[in-house]
Amino acid sequence: MRNVKDLHEAAAIGVQMSEFITAEMKRRYTTDSPEHNILNLEFEKVFRKILLLAKKRYAGLKYEYDIKTNKLTPKPADGVPTTSGLETKRRDTTLLVSRSMDDVLGLMLDYRYPLDTNLTRMRAYVWEHMVRPLLNNTINMRLLIVTKQLRMLPWQYAADGRALPIHVQLAQKLIERAGGEHAQNAPRAGARLPYVVVEGSKYSKVSERGEDPVYALDNNLRIDSRYYLDRHVRPTLLRLLVPVLTNQKQKQKVIGDPSKASTGARRQFGMSETTRKRHNDAQAAEFLFGHIKDYHDPLSRAEQRQLAGVRPMYKEHLPPVHKRPRYTDKPTFQSAAKAGATGKQNTLLGSVVHGARCQRCKKFVAGAARGFMCSACVQLADGSGNNLAKMRTSMLDIEELYDERRMLADTCHDCMGCRDAPRKITCQNTDCQILWDRKQNLASINALEKRIDTISEVLVSTRQLARLHITDEADTKRARPTSKSLQ
Question: Which of 246, 345, 382, 415 pairs as cysteine with 462 (C-beta 3.0–4.6 A)?
Fold first, then answer.
């Protein structure tokens, strides 16, 4: 074993080894027939940094060697990891895991920083792009879709006496909704079914909570974020992180001799293999998630601001992506005129007074709905002019959403071949990003229209709607989208 200064020295040693082995093989095993002496070893590639997990399971920064020009070229690009046998190559994993793993490995294998810094940057990236969006339920549903092949119909699975997997139970739901297994929209044997896991009752099984992604989005079903964290994100990251943290903590590799082990490694010699694995997984989970079993943000506010927007080396030269915030159906304040009863009356709780507290003064009002604002606070709030500013911003935002929806509809019409004919968009391809953009755009428009109606009611009640105007002339010239564009 020999340490080298740079990649070129390592490549030179590789060329010497290939030439020596080729000459030695020909000298020892040559035959009388020269046409059979075709064994020639050539040096192909070298890894600048590599993470070896198991046989044929690795990730590293690969440089290919050109014997003609004697040059090393990074493949596929500088800082882009080459993977084999990991989740980035599997079809039964989510886009969230497969796409994020390339960035996570790129941060772990970054040769410009020491390993401790790379692990901190990787942890910040995981929380910013994976854990926090899942915990806050703000992640794009397309990233959580899993596809599995339906080999047989549900009744054929039941005839064999086997438990129905999640995608087979979903196929049974889709057949019932379509009106039978011979219906046009019913799933067929051999087709690949996309599904997401939604929330259910406390005692429901995961296999019963599989749902069609488009159906879940249209019916506003809540995604089971903890399932994806526990079953997809957590195991994948721990498989990558446990070997790195174990070697980093022990500082040396120990094989069979406890006297040569470090303090941390010496403690593990009395453990069984299962106990040692559980101990290493707990240490890695505590480092990455801030807790052994739960998810507590291990980064402080200062560290979050410092590491916000951390990107892999091969993406740092790209401009940052600024996404316009989307509107959701979260409850906003409403006037007392819209306040009403909040739930069904219970016979056991007939004497309970239903109501809510004002969002501003916290005064309890009987019969009010959650998220309302009393008339006194409405007048105080309107006096500051905040509602006028909110109305103007909302109107400009909804015009941008209409423009975006028009462009998305034009893209779908071009794909369907009906650019000049006003046809309704019937494509439900869950692999297309435009479908999810249109769904998200429509949800934002609906939520923003509700917000505009709420603010308009407050402005009308305080007689300030006449003061509302848009000063930007460019904004007033925007035409509303046609019926064809909004289909």
Answer: 382
Q: What is the pLDDT of residues 213-261, one digit of tens each?
A: 989 888 888 899 999 999 999 999 999 898 888 876 654 443 344 444 4
SS3 (DSSP) at 147: strand
Neighbouring CB atoms inside 10 A of 72's CB total 19
List phi, psi (to 5°) of 52. -100, 115
Is 49 within 8 Å of 74 (Cβ atoms)?
no
> Which residue type, as a one-letter code, is found at position 20?
F
Q: Are 437 and 443 in contact (CB under 8 A)?
A: no
CA–CA separation, 79 and 250 (whole Å): 27
Amino acid making up residue 356: A
For residue 255, give Cα distances in angstroms to 246, 273, 424: 14, 14, 67
Start-to-end CA distance of the chain, whole Å, equals: 66
Neighbours of 2 (CB within 10 A): 6
| Alpha-carbon gap, residue 38 to 31, rounded angstroms | 11
Q: Alpha helices, DSSP H only, in 290-385?
A: 301-307, 375-383
For 260-385, where are the alpha helices, taking DSSP H only? 263-267, 273-289, 301-307, 375-383
Q: For residue 168, what are the CA distances in angstroms to 157, 292, 341, 364?
A: 8, 34, 42, 50
Domains within the chain, CATH numbers bracketed:
141-222 (1.10.132.60), 325-341+354-487 (no CATH)
List helix spans (H) across 140-272. 154-159, 166-178, 213-218, 225-228, 234-250, 263-267
Residue 19: alpha-carbon gap to chain centroid: 47
Q: What pTM, to 2 d.p., does this model score?
A: 0.74
- How far is residue 201's CA from residue 92's CA, in Å, rounded to a whole number? 26
Retrieve residue 206's tokens. 């995961």
Alpha-carbon torsion, ordered 124, 126, 129, 134, to 10 deg: -120
* Cβ-contact 402, 480 below 8 angstroms: yes
Structure confidence at residue 229 (pLDDT): 94
Cα→Cα distances 486→81, 231, 416, 482, Å: 42, 38, 15, 7
